[in-house]
Write a structure and sequence with these properties.
- This protein is an alpha/beta fold and 254 residues long.
- It has a single domain, classed as Undecaprenyl pyrophosphate synthetase (3-Layer(aba) Sandwich), CATH 3.40.1180.
- It has seven helices and six strands; from the N terminus they run E-H-H-E-H-E-H-E-H-H-E-E-H.
- A six-stranded parallel β-sheet has the order 3-4-2-1-5-6, sandwiched between helices.
- Strand 3, helix 4 and strand 4 form a beta-alpha-beta unit.
- Helix 1 crosses helix 2, helix 2 runs parallel beside helix 3 and helix 3 runs parallel beside helix 4.
- The longest helix is centred in the middle third of the chain and has 24 residues.
- The chain binds ligand V07.
- The site of ligand V07 has 20 residues, from helix 2, strand 2, helix 3, helix 4 and strand 4.
Length: 254
Amino acid sequence: MPMKLPFFRSKKEAQPIQAEELTNVPEHVAIIMDGNGRWAKQRGLPRIAGHKAGMDVVKETVELAIKYKINVLTLFAFSTENWSRPKHEVEYLLRLPKEFLHIYLPDLIKNNVRIETIGDFDSLPNYTKEAVQYAKEKTKNNDGLLLNFALNYGSRKEILSAIKSIMKDFDDEKFSVEQVDENLLSQYLYTHDLQDPDLLIRTSGEQRLSNFLLWQLAYTEFWFTDILWPDFNEEIFVEALMDYQNRSRRFGGI
Ligand code: V07
């Protein structure tokens, strides 16, 4: 018999599992929010309708992360590969940060959320940069959930740019070859002051990393679901958290 704990204890009670009942919650959860286009297609809607629906699920997921006492939530919002999509889709996607913040920033501030990004920020359009920079500034002293958006992010690019910076600093005699170790390289990544993710979630049935956090996910638990991102909800999230809890319990038992 599979030992799968239900989100609801029993149909009769229909009492959701309390946040306090989850132990060993991952401190840092990273999510590849896939399946927005497919969700729209299934409804005969344009792809951008899926992105919009996905945006609202981001806000719901932030609330869940707070409820379940997660410290860091890293969301893959825009990859360096996304530039090759049709121009109107790219433009729509890159307007979403501003739209999201217009609607939700006051609430995020109220909830003590700090907003950060990883990725090639400078190459983003001004309308994206300005809105996100404003939000970072407004939330920089908050010490609740760290909401970290991967924006124009690509892991190989990140590692390459780290290597280039390391070589420059080596040229400037800041350290010797012997001092180049994992810790030093980590300090040159976008994630330099972030702990590595404990749990990676990818929606929509794809089971690959798609150039996301290749270095940082070395020891991370992976969790995949066929659910499309706009359908992601508390029940699915709790299932992922419980699977993580069970894996870490087994791991701890050895
Ligand atoms: C985007 C919605 C979620 C599904 C995946 C693709 C579409 C929220 C943001 C965002 C980013 C930075 C920020 C505030 C909000 C976002 C993009 C796409 C590019 F500071 N959702 N979302 N950014 N989607």
